[in-house]
Amino acid sequence: MNRLLLWFHQLGSPPVFDRFAARWTPWGFGLGLVGMAIGLYGALFVVPADYQQGDSFRILYIHVPAAWMSLMVYALMAVYAAIALIWHIKLCEVLAMACAPIGAWFTAVTLATGSIWGRPMWGTWWDWDPRLTSELVLLFLYLGVIGLNAAIEDRRAAARAAGFLAIVGVVLLPIIRYSVEWWNSLHQGATIRMFGEDAMDPSMKWPLWVMIIATKAWFVGSLLQRARADNLAREAGKDWARAAAGVEK
Amino acid sequence: MSYLEYVIGAYAVFALYLAWDFWAPRLRLSRTRREIAARARREAARAATAAGKEPSA
Question: How do the domains of chain A map onto residue ranges?
Fold first, then answer.
């Protein structure tokens, strides 16, 4: 078997995953923190104020990365849930359910920072605009997944039910992404694009990219840490879990 | 800096989220470890009690 494929199969084993997560969690958090320190320094002290929005545009450096993460984490959660449902891989159930609180918080941060920016720029904290409303629905979907997972006692049945909800909810992602194009929206179009022209001056862009990458590194750390705790709780009766918890034989 | 209170408010929300996201899974992991250790102690105590009660041949 291909070595990479073999490693991937082995990673599905709970004790191997525990060791993997223990090793890479500090790297995720560490790289995320360093990246955010650099990105936020650039965002707050290096880039010039916007000619129209003044300094309030600096909120964008946390709002946009959080918004991207809210969508990316949901897509990843649905992928893990689909793998778990199709191939019955227990670790994918753990990873899918570990995604939910992280994604929910990124969505809440997106809504909160957007609202704080909207007050001086739009003159209101909230508007039932398609982008804002669909992002709020995303938060409710995350909460639904978390609630369903917590409501069922059997951990595997809970993860399967919540995973199914996560998969169904994927339909919301393109609605959020294209809501500003499909409907008349108070929310502006995409500020930056991966490919092609965007609306942002190049001098203002680098801290945003640093923040986008840093939030992803942070997410890796958070996901591994949460999945590790859940994995250990599910395997509490096993010898390896006892050894990992520091219990002597 | 213009709109300072809004910028501070938004960054404070983000900082609070990061702090929670860092500590919450860490606390859960240490609680899980404690629970595993407590369960192992209970099982060891039960096994010792059972062994003590066994009738001698």
Answer: 24-44+56-233
Decide: helix, strand or coil at residue A148: helix
**Looking at the complex, does the CB of residue B12 fall below 8 Å from at least one CB of chain A?**
no
Side chain identity at residue A115, one-letter code? S
Please list the alpha-helical segments (H only) found in B2-57.
4-53
For A82-92, how does the pLDDT look when each residue is reduced to its tens digit (9 = 90+)? 999 998 888 99
Please give the full DSSP string across A51-84, using - where no structure is assigned.
Answer: TTTBGGGGGHHHHHHHHHHHHHHHHHHHHHHHHH
Provide the 8-state DSSP code for B54.
Answer: S
For residue range A52-108, what is the model confidence (pLDDT) as tens digits?
888 889 999 999 999 999 999 999 999 999 999 998 888 999 999 999 999 999 999
Which residue of B18, B25, B40 is in closest CB contact with A226? B25
Q: Could you tell me which chain B residue has the CA closest to the CA of A244? A: B33
Average of per-residue pLDDT values in chain A? 90
Look at A245 and B36 and tell me if their CB atoms are within 8 Å: yes
